[in-house]
């Protein structure tokens, strides 16, 4: 097994790198820019622009993964509303590029998606429920899922994450737990919505 991880500088990517090291799994960590994870050895890190077909093709041909875990994405929901074209390029078009490279090597492609694909009206969703995205971020993820669902190649899987949180190295964005801990440390008030329910099945 040879796993290629996209978005390895992000929180989820760092946790996957950690698991690969712990279980002695051969992996290649990739992200845009330099390696920001001190737990990830530099000799298994490769800078990768997932929006560039040439860059993706070069890295895949060099490493030849058997499995791809695609965590890289534009995840700031507010920013996606402001920059819908950038959101579509990163979250939809890049998925097509990375999936195409995976298919060329017959590598299993794991897409990280989101529960935001649903509108929240029904609740208690199953994977077979009809999607109804309400934001640019959610729309880009639904379109990415459709790329896989409509393809003749079925060597893929989709994981719809709920809330990704925890500690990591040099993260470009905070998450709800880190934000709450920092606010409590400073003695700042916490303004938190109380009409939202998130659940995993």
CATH superfamily: NAD(P)-binding Rossmann-like Domain
Strand order of the largest sheet: 3-2-1-4-5-6
Number of helical stretches of at least 4 residues = 6
Give the proportion of residues in helices.
25-40%
- Order of helical and strand elements: EHEEHEHHEHEH
Give the overall shape: globular
Average pLDDT confidence is 90
Radius of gyration: 17 Å
Class in CATH? Alpha Beta
- What is the structural class? alpha/beta
- What is the CATH architecture annotation? 3-Layer(aba) Sandwich
CATH topology: Rossmann fold
**DSSP strand count:** 6
* Cα separation of the termini: 28 Å
Q: Biggest sheet, in brief?
A: 6 strands, parallel
Percent of residues in beta strands?
15-25%
Unreliable sequence segments: none
Number of domains: 1
Index terms:
six-stranded parallel β-sheet, alpha/beta, Rossmann fold, 201 residues, 6 strands, 15% strand
Structure commentary:
This protein has helices spanning 11-22, 53-63, 77-82, 84-104, 136-149, 176-186, and strands at residues 2-6, 26-31, 45-47, 67-70, 108-114, 156-161. The chain is 37% helix and 15% strand. It has a six-stranded parallel beta sheet, sandwiched between helices. The mean pLDDT is 90. It has six helices and six strands. With 201 residues, the chain is α/β, with parallel strands linked by helices. The protein has a single domain, classed as NAD(P)-binding Rossmann-like Domain (Rossmann fold), CATH 3.40.50.720.
